[in-house]
Known about the structure:
homodimer, alpha+beta, Glutamine Phosphoribosylpyrophosphate, subunit 1, domain 1, nine-stranded mixed β-sheet, globular
Amino acid sequence: MNIVIERxxxxxxxxxxxxxxxxxxxxxxxxxxxxxxxxxILHSVKSVxxxxxxxxxxxxxxxxxxxxxxxxxxxxxxxxxEVGAVMAVKQIKNPIEVAYDLSHKKRSSVxxxxxxxxxxxQRGFAFKNMLTESSFQRYLKERTLDKDEEKRTAxxxxxxxxxxxxxxxxxxxxxxxxxxxxKHPGRIGDSPLIGSxxxxxxxxxxxxxxxxxxxxxxxxxxxxxxxxxREGVAVQEACEQCLLQHLRRLETLGYGNGGMxxxxxxxxxxxxxxxxxSAFPFVISDGKECxxxxxxxxxxxxxxxxxxPDSQWLEECSADWIFMN
Amino acid sequence: MNIVIERxxxxxxxxxxxxxxxxxxxxxxxxxxxxxxxxxILHSVKSVxxxxxxxxxxxxxxxxxxxxxxxxxxxxxxxxxEVGAVMAVKQIKNPIEVAYDLSHKKRSSVxxxxxxxxxxxQRGFAFKNMLTESSFQRYLKERTLDKDEEKRTAxxxxxxxxxxxxxxxxxxxxxxxxxxxxKHPGRIGDSPLIGSxxxxxxxxxxxxxxxxxxxxxxxxxxxxxxxxxREGVAVQEACEQCLLQHLRRLETLGYGNGGMxxxxxxxxxxxxxxxxxSAFPFVISDGKECxxxxxxxxxxxxxxxxxxPDSQWLEECSADWIFMN
Lengths: 325, 325
C-alpha cells in the first residue's frame, strides 16, 4: 500500500529586481504557512514600498520635477480578471493596498490623482509624507544638471517592483513604482496600465514589465506575452520573442533602447524573464527557497542566459543599479 | 494607349456612434482637400467634443458624482507608435488636442489630472467650464435616485467617440470621453488606456472600443483585435471573434453584459465593427460619401449583420440612445 503524503500546495512567486528579495522571501514563507495569494503579493510589494533605501518605489521614491513623489500601483487577479489601479497619487503610504482594494469594485476600479487620494482617505488607508530628506537632496542636485527630459532612461532611478504569484491554480500580480525620475507631474508609465505593465489570467499565465514605460506601452508587452503563453509557447520563449520583436520594431522607428525588462509565469508555475539590458536581476521563491537570478540577453537573437550570480560575478559587475536594486 | 488617371489617395475613416456623423463627414472632405490624417482625426473628435448636445464627450459631458466634468482622451499614430493621452482632466476645452500634442513627446506623454492640466495651460490650450446648465440639472436629478454605482451600464449616458483613419498607408486613431456618468472622481475607463480603448499600427491595423471601460480593459480588446488582424484574420471576423470570446469569458466569471462595442480597420482600409448591444451605430467616410451603419450581433455565434438603417428601421428602433448619439 502506498502512503501518499500530500505536499502542501506551496506557491511560486517571481519578482523584479534585487530590491524585491527580502519581501519575496517572506512572502514565500507566508504562502507555505497558509496565507492567501493576495496577502503574499501585497506583503512583498509593501516590503519594497516601505523601504526608503529603494528610491524608485513608495517611501523615499524619487520625486517628479516639481519635487513631489507621485506613485502608481496596480493589482490584477487572474481568476476573476479583477483589476484595480491608482495613478499619480501623493502621500499614500502603500499604493498597492489601495489598488488591491479597488480591484474588488466592478465600476470605478481605476482611479487617478486627487480622486484616488479621496478614495484612499475615505477608506481609511494610511497617509504619509513620502519624500525623504535623502531623495529631496538628490532632487535638488539633479535639478541643477538640466538634462534632456526626452532622453531619460529607466535606470536613472526608475525600477518598478512587479510580483507575480501562483498558489494552487490561482494566479495574480501586483506592481508599484514612483515612476520616471524628474517626470512631468501627472506622468504615467506602463506600470498602472493593464496589458502594458501587468496582466494575469489564471487560465493562461501572467506577465509584468519594468523599464521605460513610454516604450513598453507601445507594445502592450504584458498582454502580448500572456497571449503568447496561451498559444502554447514556453514562458521563457514567450518573454524573449515578445521583447525582441518589440525592441526591433522600436529600433526601426528610431527609438533608442532606454531599457525594458519583463517577467512572466505560465499557469503551471513555470517562469521566464527577458531584458534589453546587459543584465537584469529578478527573484524566484518556491516557498522553500528564494533566490536571485540574472537574465542576460543576446541582443542579436534575443536568447537569454538565466543564471544565479556568484560572488565573483557580483564583484565584477560594475553596474551600480545591480547593487542598488 | 490607356490613359491612367490617378485617383487622389482619398482617406478612409470609421468612427463610433451617430454623434460622430457630422464631424466625420467634414473630416472626410478635409482629407480629400489635402489635410493631413491628424488634422482630419482631430477635426472629427473636436466636432463631438465641442457639441454640447452630446452628453458623453467634451463640452456638456455628464459629470462625476461630485458634479465635475472629468475628461479622458488619447491619440495614437500608427506609423510611429507615438501615443499621447490625458486622463481625468477638468476644464480643458479639447482634450484630444492635448493628447495629440503629448503624442510627440518621447517621455511623459501620458498625463493625468492636475499634472495634465498644468501641461495644457503651459502649452496654451484653451480652458473652459465644461459643465452646461442642462448637464448640471440632469446631475441634480440623477443624484436623488441613489442608484447602485456597481451596476451602472455604459448607456446611462456614456459613449466614447473613437475615430480611426487611414490616408495613403498612414493609420492613426483618436478617442475622447467624459467617462461613466456619476463615476467616482478620478475614475478611468478603457478609453485613455493604450491597447484597451485604442491601438493603431500602420503595419497591421487599428481598433478602438466604447462601452463599460472596466469590462473592456480586462481583455485589452483594441490590442487583441489589432493582433488578430496582423495574423491575417479579416477585420470584421477579428472584431467578432475577440469581442465574443471576451464576452463569454466575462459571462463565465459572472459579469453582466454592460455593453461593449468595437470598430477596427486593417492596413488596406477594410473596416469592421461588433457589439454586445442589440444595435450599434457607427460611421464610415471614404472622403466622397459618409454613411451611418448599424452593427447588430447574434449573441449566440457572435456573427454580425452590418446594414444602412432606413427610415423605417430608425422609426421602429425604440432605443433612445440610437437617436441621442
